[in-house]
Description:
Layout: H1 11-17, E1 21-26, H2 31-34, H3 39-45, E2 50-52, H4 62-65, H5 76-84, E3 90-95, H6 128-153, E4 159-163, E5 169-172, E6 184-186, H7 192-199, E7 211-215, H8 217-220, H9 223-233, H10 245-252
Parallel strand pairs: 1-2, 1-3
Antiparallel strand pairs: 4-7, 5-6
Amino acid sequence: IGSTLGTETSFISVFNHLGYHTAWLTTEPDWSYLDSGYDMISQLALETKEQRFSWMVSKDNLKQNRQKKDFADEVLLQDFDRLLAQHRKLLVVFNTFGSHYPYQREYIRGEYAPFQPTCTTVEECDNFDHLENAYDNTIVYTDYFLSEVIRRLKGRRALFLYMSDHGESIAEDSSGHRIGRTGVFAHGHGSDRFVELIRDGSFDEQRRVPMLLWASDSFLADPAANHRFENLRAKVNDVVSHDNVFHSIIDCAGIRSEAVDSKLSLCGREPVPRYDAFLWKGADLTSSK
């Protein structure tokens, strides 16, 4: 699709050009509707042919509703099942709540809450141990959600990428050591001073986030796809970033496009450049994955 070079706004538009049905499933609101400053996210979502927003959310009840069952990430699986049943070329973007604050959720109970005691109200989460357990339980719940997505894809020719947008600081010091109530509580973004600290190598937990790229057996049955994944496996210890996402999704899916920089694709043959190291002047990148 070389003729579209320079006209793409995201990997979504690439899949649109190729005739895929594209969908954005999120437990977030339409941020442009709330005029919240997060309009870019909504603009990306609106590039898809179908969206599922949480319209119930308003500026006044955002945090309160995020704790309710209707806001659970697993609600998105119902729409996912409907899309899969249509048996057509499909690109789905999940924008989940994950482990954002508040960590206490009424839908994280029982088997999804092995870490106890936890908190169910803001007042109870004033106890640091309860807060930490509540956060850990969100990780358990995310693991469940991802496993349900993969379970649905195992019998299909499918590729699945998961990546967090940022980390959370829960009572860490600037070196990333947990020090309790006197530590820093932060959420991936904030003041200009916070950005300076991140770039100086402080609060390492904010920028080292998980990334998972999974392919089904039928997807890898194609020799060319399997070869691309061999390239990916060779880079498992490389330093990668969100800058690799656009190029990797298109290239790993087997789409040939002049919009892709092969050096930035994790499925390409070339090593991933360490071009982003200047952002982390004080960081030890040798152990990043």
